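Q: Got a minute? One more chain.
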Amino acid sequence: MIRLPTLRYERPATLAEAIELAAQPGARVVAGGTDLVPKMKRGQLSAGVLVSLGRVEELRAISNVAGGLRIGSGVRLAELGRNPDLAARWPAVWQAAVQVASPPIRNRATLGGNLLVDPRCRWYDQSAEWRTAVGGCLKADGDICRVAPASDHCWAVSSTDTAPALMACGATVRLVGPGGERTLLLNDLYRDDGMDYAVLRPGELLASIDLPDPGGGSSSFWKIRQRGSIDFPLASGAAAVRLDERRVVEARVAIGAVASRPLLVDTAALLGQELTDEAIAAVGVLAARTAHPLETSDLPASYRRKLIPVIVGHALRELRGDDLSRARRRYGPRVLAGAERL
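A: Always. Here it is, folded:
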């Protein structure tokens, strides 16, 4: 049996207490713990103090704000799957939330934890014995990137499902720390670095995620993984579009699992245009050029790059009104509105 190392476990009841404890040297914050705890058991991550956010009620609230939705970072993914307002107004976020892992994990995992999930790599996400046998990697136990040996950069891949969907919907995040509070576009939360992947300052916590009023637009999220459940994405994509008499007046496209951070795709060419097959294909080509997958996952990077135009195309065609129910049955959640089937 693999056990956690000896550490101090703290359960603050308020956000202020949590910030104070998180600012201590060697402290790590845990919400659902579905990714962090297994990695600590495998020796990939360490902590002298583990600060649980489970008792901080402020982080577990969902509220309406200025026509939009504020979601606390501690809200569990299963709760998002049961939220009819989210499913109706921000379907991409709902679709992403209900495709994370499996029902038991979604009952424990939180939105904030998924947004800040540690980037993955097939050289890194192994047992301590396996990593020792190959000599480790730049992210754990070694001094070389096994994916790109000539690079001094870690290329572990961002595997958050919800970030591309939230980015496509224009989400912002509220960060709270010893220096006060600040608000960022979700896109600005991330660095393209497999080790130092978020701009959080010491002691700073992700408190909430704000979704703006979709303004009559809609959104869609698609994900490719090895199996129909459990697995992290091999590639994912989300699109949000607002139309005026069939012409695009606002569009955002984001892709995930093809770099060390989720990425926005240039959609300027769509503005003022109808969602024709040619326009959708052009955005798919731009998305593939934006992506830079490496050999971090089970399937080859060349194949994952080819998936990107397919995923982005599905998202945009769904927003155009095409019937993609057969593809949804194969790749996505089978319930497109209402409560998640647990």
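A: Confidence is low (pLDDT under 50) at residues 334-342.
Q: Perfect, thanks.
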